[in-house]
Every structure is written in structure tokens, then in C-alpha cells.
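Researcher: Here's the sequence for the chain we discussed earlier.
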Amino acid sequence: MINYTTHEFHHEVFRLFGKPHRRGGGGVDMVINYTGGDTWVPSLRSLRKGGRMLTCGATAGFDPPTDIRYIWTFELQLLGSNGWTVEDLESLLNMVQTGKLKPVIDRVLPLTEAVEALRLLEDREVIGKVIVEP
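Model: Thanks. This is the structure I predict for it:
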């Protein structure tokens, strides 16, 4: 896992997999981006030629600057996923229950600290989920 708050993650991708080239090689096959905003461009920059980016949200901003020449030059695919239907959520929870998917939990806080939990999320000071327990 690369912590995007402490590392320029596209540079970490370059270090691990090589810098993407127009003729192929380097980069990663797929990036899943949940936040938009300042992670959008580095996510695109991390993709190999023909790579795909799945976007599932825009909690950090819905209008990031994008040089679309990079998208067509590297023949990238941008895919959107809503995933908030009852059926999708039931499927997701079933995957967690059966162990097929393990969520990343940053911390667990008591209900009395619910305001702090919201602040942590809004200020993007966590990697993963914050659980608030009654």
C-alpha cells in the first residue's frame, strides 16, 4: 500500500513498475480512485498504455484539472461505478462476511467521538475506514 498523504504515489508507481511509455511498458493496469480532487491526475499518470481507471467518488473534488492529451496518447479507459444500490451493498457486505474482501480500518472510535471521526474523514487524515461504535 502506498500512503498518498506522505508519498507522491505516482512516483512510487514509477519506482516499482517503471514510468509509463507511449510504446508500452511501465505503470499499472488499473487504478481505483475514490476521491477525485488532487489524486485524479496522479492516478492517470500511474496507468500504463491501455490502462483503466475506475472512479467511484469525488469526496476531494469533482473538477480536477486534466490534460486530456494524456488520456488519448496513452489510450486510457475511464470507467465510472456507482455501486450504491441495495443489491450492490448486500453483495459487498457478503464479501466482507465471507472473507473475500477485507476492509482497511484505520481506527475505531466511541460514539462520543463521532465529531472527531467526521473531522478525520473530512481532513483526509485516515487511510481506510473509521468505525464509530455505540
